[in-house]
Queue: 4 jobs
Job 1
Amino acid sequence: MILIGRLLSPFVRRVQISMNLLGIECERRPYGTATHADEISQVNPLRRVPALILDGGETLIDSAAILDYLDELVGPQKALVPSSGAERRKVLKLTALAVGAAEKGVVAFYEKTRRPDDKIWDEAVKKYREQILGGLNALENAVPTDGGWLVGPNVSQADITTAAVVDFVNIVLPDLIGDTDYPRLKALVARLNLREEFSSTHPSTE
């Protein structure tokens, strides 16, 4: 398999972490949407990452679709999203909160870095930042006080996506999260980043 995209993208990174945890090997081509638009358009006409080229030549696009395929591939016992019940609903909800925060982080970053200074819409950036903080607040409140993972006894997609998003926000919006903000969330992400499956995918490694 070939994974397309840079690790700075939280969407690419959550796929790579998931593949690491599931023991699925892949080649990764670190294409960025700003620098490799032509190459990316050959696998996704929307020029978005990630894309996953399967061994048979089929290409999957969008991280949610890729992760669903990976869970199907390994079966319900190893899947990173439970197959049914309250735990499945909770994992999906928390993952959606993290994904939403990531999406707003991307648009806030683009608004600040891809426009001339006199074209930046500060009110929109303020709104995006508030939405990111709303998602992070909800995730902070979801972290168990006993030091466990977000849902159940094992790392789930909720943990994976949360770690990818928090690290992404800290890089592209370094002034957003204060030193004393979100102590439980920061502790969770720090524990996850001690694991090789996570640390080897940190954007700083690329």
Job 2
Amino acid sequence: MAGRGSTAAGRVALVWDPALADYDLGHDHPLAPIRVELTMALIRASGLVGNGAVEVPPGSFDEAELLRMHRPAFVDTVKRLSADVTARADAEFGLGDGDTPAFPGMHPTSMLICAASQEAARQVWQGDADHAFSPAGGLHHAMPDRAAGFCIYNDPAVAIDWLLEHGAERVAYVDVDVHHGDGVEVMFADDPRVLTISLHESGRFLFPGTGHASDIGGDGAPGSAANVPLHPGTTGDVWLDAFDAVVEPLVRAFAPDVLVTQLGCDTHATDPLAHLSLTVDDDAEAYRRLHDLAHEVCGGRWVAFGGGGYQVVDVVPRAWTLAFAEMAGRHVPIDTPMQWQELAYARTGRTPPRSFTDDPVRVADELREQARRAAAESVEAVRRLVMPLHGIRVPPTVG
């Protein structure tokens, strides 16, 4: 399963350094670093590294590059708390609360995540790889002047900015995390060179409470954002229909030089922090669509990051291994490797999944219908408000 085995793949980069797992918000925090470590272990155990798929370390990244996206006062505060977590945290900068607590070394570790995501962008843009994946990245909630939603520095925004600075004329950013990709949208809301598309659980039910279908970008670039808020209980078929109706036509019309994606897998039916009803099989189908779109629209240039996902044993490693398998054009077996199962149990005490596939999700008929109607309304709003701004002629709705 997974991977477009019939399609020859070029070089694919997996950006990793063990120090990326030092992004640790605390013992009981849901963003547990073990999820990325187990992902790397499953990718390796599944035989996906080699034959053109290579691990590469993060590249160089300096503070001047960070300050292009984040305010100096905020960065100075992160550095101060990074060196002394007992120092007074300032709520103005979003640090010190339960969501994004300060931790020792958070500045250099967050810088390293930015370096990894920027390296993924560099690998693709400079032609060293067709596709690149930075599983520790995807911290899409961080704002220019504050941390938010487990995110200190906004590495997707840093990577997009690097692409623009190095010659990309248009970048499409597609965010499939269950939470609205608010930070990235805000940072590029007035930049017509960047199109941000986010499919997420509606802000009526979930953090950060933004990403309404009527939010279509800033005054300087109307149509630079498309948002598809979804109702609790949304299943994979409804989610994929919304993807097909919004992502594919908009990305085709925008004609980006590179496709950048955030692959949060907290849309899963068992995720403890959200309420959608997807499976890892649905995730794999989304990755196939993104892969095809990258080849169709922008010469295969595809940069991907991790993101949310709080079933740290059952879901995240499988979903992101399937993502990398898709990038590499490789298949994974139905069963997860026994050596990985043993490692996951030894590290967490939890019995890991034995299969790369999920059982079908059952959703009550009434909830399923509510979710279908809500998705249709969101799609129709994007068709009416955003698509005409990209030259897409939308026939009037009948009835």
Job 3
Amino acid sequence: MFPRTLAVLFGLVVLAALAGGERMARAQGTGIAPRASKLARIRPSEDKTHFVREGTNERIVIWGFNYDHDDAGRLLEDYWREEWATVAEDFREMKDLGANVVRVHLQLARFMKDAEHPDEENLDRLVKLVRLAEETGLYLDVTGLGCYHKETVPGWYNDLEESARWDVQARFWKAVAGVCKDSPAIFCYNLMNEPILTGGDGKKDWLPGEPLGGKHFVQRITTDLRGRTDKEVARAWVERLATAIRSVDDRQMITVGVIPWAQVFKGAKPLFYAPEVCGPLDFVSVHFYPKAGKLDDDLAALRVYEVGKPLVIEEIFPLPAGPEETGAFIEKTRSHVDGWISFYWGKTIQEYEKAGDLKGALVSGWLRRFRSLSPSPPPSDRKP
């Protein structure tokens, strides 16, 4: 045979062997087949004041992007099969912008075929995403149980009562953690984006309120307290899902990304990070959008979430405050915050600038500002 033909055949054999190894590892319950990686796992420091690389005292500050949808509003699972090259390019672009973490938002309906059975095809795709993160030198904040597009949430899931719904959520997390557990690229498992309890109009709806940009980012964990306190329900839910994860993965960190009610209602106290609730959680994740002209109030609201665990601002963007005020907020919080995660929607700074519209100007300006604030900015952004 010609040398090129031999090389092609040899490559196919190697790829087949690697694929077989991945699937065998999955079948044997060992998660991702071990592979050399330049990443070290991230852990809370011994005194719980910051993050370190596992096995060292080397501090690491979390800096990155929410990769929740693209510029057209498509969720990751909508295009990661047919447009994998786009995903890979986006990861490289986020890395070039100074990121060390990417937050991905997994939709429950894409990972559970029914109440009992995970979707193996999308679990395989998740394994591929973890590999991409390893190769790019990025960590993943894996946020789960998304129901962002209400119209795609299965009827069988909406019809479940609380206990059965939690059972499905536990199976989701057991399946996801089962394929991610061996990778050092997993920064954390975020149980759910902005969970709330019951209350208000339409309290029987699991996805309350009007959508934001066509998406439901907030989700209830119960529609009936049944005589329980808020803290009792929150504690039971956190323990249920954390136990499911810990049954297959006892190494990766667990958190919950919450709305900072202390920013909305003066004097409000954390629910999911109350002492009675947050035991299984390794660090605090709060979603903080600074208000214009309210820097001191925002800083006071953030202090409520200093509970003796590392603190990450898992969502931040210059609305309603502008880029300068939002940047000033980041600077003022560096002494006690251990990470900031903004947003990346699949377009570069240059592409936004080329658009020539208000959105393009806002996002491109913020990406430049955020990049310059990175603890490890690209050389071109470092101050002399």
Job 4
Amino acid sequence: MPASELTENTDIETGKFLIRDAAPSDIPAIQGIYRQAVEEGTASFEEIAPDIEEMARRQKALQEKNFPYLVAIERETGQLCGYAYAGPYRPRAAYRHSIEDSIYILPEFHGQGIGSILMQHLIARCEKGPWRQMVAVIGDSQNKGSIALHRKYGFELVGTLRNIGFKLDRWLDCVLMQRPLK
């Protein structure tokens, strides 16, 4: 499939929010959202937030391989309030038809439907690609919002790794969810 079909740089108006492909100029805001998630939450098992240069490297690497990387912009203020992307599930060759999604939203925008909007568009974009399965690796079984969001979009619970991570002075589970793309 031509790269242009997977990385269609189309702005999508969704009421209060605009969804578009991430640009290099979005990296400072993306890094700020992710830094907060790393330092204050358990959605990511990273303990030290990557700097702007590392986040730019990660974004570029995904987009160069035609993985979707989307941002949500509040139309009224122009603030980047969330982002979502898909990337390889695992590096081994046999996993090449499976991808993993990631969605991060600024806490002050939780409950406004941004996760749903991003998930809808991320899945739609991924369904145009060569992938067959989408996997969610959800840090912390107490992350009820992420689990509910994934369930809403057809992900099924396929397993829970108990006490697999230690962060913020507690043991954390990792919830695995999966949905077909085709």
